[in-house]
Amino acid sequence: MDSKTQADRLFQQGNQQWQTRQFAAAVNSWQQSLQIYRALKNRQGERAVLTNLGAVYYSLGNTYNSLGNYAKAIEYSQQSLAIAREIKDRSGEGRALGNLEAAYNSLGNYAKAIEYTEQSLAVVREIKHRQGEGVALGNLGIAYLKLSNYAKAIEYSQQSLAIAREVKDREGEGLALSYLAVAYINLSNSAKAIEYAQQSLAIAREIKDREGEGKALGYLAVAYDSLGNYAKAIEYAHQSLALAREIKNRLGEGVALGNLGSAYNSLGNYAKAIEYSQQRLVIP
Predict the structure, then answer these.
(1) Residue 129 carries which DSSP code?
(2) Residue (of 53, 57, 153) closest to 110 by Cα position
(3) Buried b vs exposed e over 45-64: b needs ≥16 C-beta within 10 Å?
(4) What is the C-alpha separation between 80 and 92, in angstroms, rounded?
(5) pTM for this model (two decimals)
(6) C-alpha closest to that of 142 among 106, 168, 195
(7) CB-based burial label for 276 (10 Å; 0-12, 13-18, 19+)
(8) pLDDT per residue over 105-156, tens digit each?
(9) How far is CA 201 from CA 131, 181, 218, in A?
(10) What is the Cα–Cα distance from 205 to 47, expressed in whole angstroms?
(11) Among 28, 98, 200, 279, which residue's beta carbon has the most beta carbons within 10 A?
């Protein structure tokens, strides 16, 4: 087997390991392929591996809440970006910029996240990648949500939603709808929040996105609580709690318990409010 074939095989092996969440094994395979590509001066292969290493270390950062892994994600993505620009690989440049945006967003550095997303948006528009454009616009919506700039968040999420519907990207459509629901919750426009959350819920159920379904149920619980419809708020919060426990989503479970505590507190049922709030406290 020649060196190029061996490097390609290790690269594909890493891809398969990543898909089955064998992160450490994927990193090992990619590091071996990276050494070979560098020895061969195969810049495209090197760029592809570095992009994947950036993405896997971002995943590791999310899984273990590790600042060190986010630092590695940024390091590899910066290297990938430099090579993509050197060899004029615009698609690879867009992917590297997307990795950098995701890492900085997770670190809470939203100004940096916006900077890289705007660069990514320019690239995907240039290469006419409509789905990628929708994703980038959605990422800008997220960043502005985090910055509490709800007007900007709505503007970018609406643009993302329009493109997702145009290219029939149901997952992207569901995400954009959920960002709009969150923005309107924060603007105390419960009617709009419910409208978007219901649409997001329907799509999540259609595409079997259980985590997205749980989030949409949670948004409905919060919106109905704000409207003073505590029975509906409790109904949706219970559905969200059951789902979170079923898929072992501890963060979602904590949010649902908090929503139940809030709704029962608003009802004046302080015993129930205390019960759910105490359960919420024991979740990390």
Answers:
(1) -
(2) 153
(3) bbbbbbbbbbbbbbbbbeee
(4) 8
(5) 0.86
(6) 106
(7) buried
(8) 989 999 999 999 999 999 999 999 999 999 999 999 999 999 999 999 999 9
(9) 21, 11, 10
(10) 37
(11) 200
